[in-house]
Amino acid sequence: MDSLLIAALAGLVGIAIGVVGMHAFRVSERQRAEGIDVDEPTMPEGANEVLASLGLAYIVVDTVDGVVRANPAAYAFGLVRGHTVVHQEVLRLTSRVRGDGIIIEEQLELPRGLQGETTIVVNLRVAPLGDEYILVLADDRTEVSRTEAVRNDFVANVSHELKTPVGAISLLAETIEGASEDDEAVRRFSKRLHKESNRLAVLVQDIIELSRVQGKNVVHAGVPVDLTTVIVEAVDRSRVPAEDKGIDLRVAGELPRRVHGDADQLTMAFRNLIDNAVRYSPEGTRVGIGLSSRDGIAQVTITDQGIGIEAENQERIFERFYRVDPARSRSTGGTGLGLSIVKHVVSNHGGEVALWSQPGKGSTFTVRLPELEEGLDDLSGLGYGDFRDDDAARLTESDAGQQPHTRKNHRPASAPDSIEEETP
């Protein structure tokens, strides 16, 4: 019994010593941890104030490319997620700067969004910041790049379109000069020369009109406009070519309220739509212009019995210089700018233009514009944002669920019944 008791007491003493030792170890580790001063990442003096005043998205990374600091714009651009730089292209630039100690500037097109569904064009400037940090400045150039691309595309298209009539005029002039002794040939080629010169004049005029439409602020420079008067004027200007083809132009309905805008621009837009309907309609048919007003929205529909437009072409019909059938457009005198001008004019007036069309059954273009309130003769003191926001809200409420610019497989309710009943 004495030996067993001694063994038990020894075991208890050993356990007690172990517990005391473990406690002493933990106390020692805690004291040592508390004694260590961990330095948080710090920026060079004055760097935060400078970065805040730049107005650019910025990212500051450390020696292992961990994000030390980034402003909200960097997260909005999709350059940073959490504490990680998203794009390997950006990390490639930071690595080069870290290795070479130089400043690098480069423009990149980077995917944006969780799935990279969109892209953003950014101008990146990457430079050392102090001894251990790298600064990335990002300037969003997406809109500038898009504008430059549109401008370059427009210049290329204009050059191509001008080259055709200019080349034809030059060739015809040489032919006339060579056939000066043949009166019949001179008359024939002179007639074609006159046609090409007219085509060139129309093209140049459309380019000028498109430039004017894009450069004028209708909201600030506009006045109350009687849309009924505009339609009457547009129909009158299109009546001669319509009579030449035996096409009946009919106007039905009324617009009791005025719209805010530019009368000349609106007349040009509606004349383009009516001319288009006449140009692509068979002889002896009818073009209907329907006028209606509902919920503060003026609606004008132009319906023809023409050749119609295939579904795959309807999405692009408002693009500059786009033609469904280039050969037919040239033979009918089309420049490919008329509908683009219409789209810009309507957009400038806070409205929308929609298309319904079926091959062989004709087309209906519908223009919808916000009306002025009764008794509002001028917009003095009414801000741009107030006018557009109010009218855009009414436009949206009255057209909820409808797809802008292009509507397919249904005829607008306001399309004249008499036109629908007729067959080309």
Provide structural commentary:
This protein is α+β, with helices and mostly antiparallel strands and about 425 residues long. It is about 50% helix and about 20% strand. A hairpin with a 5-residue loop joins strand 1 (about 55-60) and strand 2 (about 65-70). Helix 5 runs antiparallel to helix 6.
Task: Give me some keywords for this one.
424 residues; alpha+beta; 5-stranded antiparallel sheet; 5-stranded mixed sheet; 14 helices; disordered C terminus
The whole-number mean of residue pLDDT values reads 75
Q: How much strand content do the residues show?
A: 15-25%
Distance between the termini: 123 Å
Question: What's the helical proportion of residues?
Answer: 40-55%
Biggest pleated-sheet summary? 5 strands, antiparallel
The shape is elongated
| Discrete helix count | 14
Q: Which segments are poorly predicted (pLDDT under 50) over 5 or more consecutive residues?
A: 376-424
Secondary structure topology:
Elements: H1 2-35, H2 47-54, E1 57-61, E2 67-70, H3 72-76, E3 80-81, E4 84-85, H4 88-100, E5 104-112, E6 118-129, E7 133-140, H5 142-178, H6 183-215, H7 218-221, E8 223-225, H8 227-244, E9 248-253, E10 259-261, H9 263-279, E11 286-294, E12 297-303, H10 311-314, H11 326-332, H12 338-348, E13 352-358, E14 362-370, H13 384-398, H14 417-421
Parallel strand pairs: 9-11
Antiparallel strand pairs: 1-2, 1-7, 3-4, 5-6, 6-7, 8-10, 11-12, 12-14, 13-14
Helix pairs in contact: 5-6, 6-12, 8-9, 9-12
Write a concise synopsis of the structure shown.
It is built from 14 helices and 14 strands. The chain is α+β, with helices and mostly antiparallel strands and 424 residues long. The strands form four sheets. Strands 2-1-7-6-5 form a five-stranded antiparallel β-sheet, with helices on both faces. It has a five-stranded mixed β-sheet with strand order 9-11-12-14-13. It has a two-stranded antiparallel sheet with strand order 3-4.
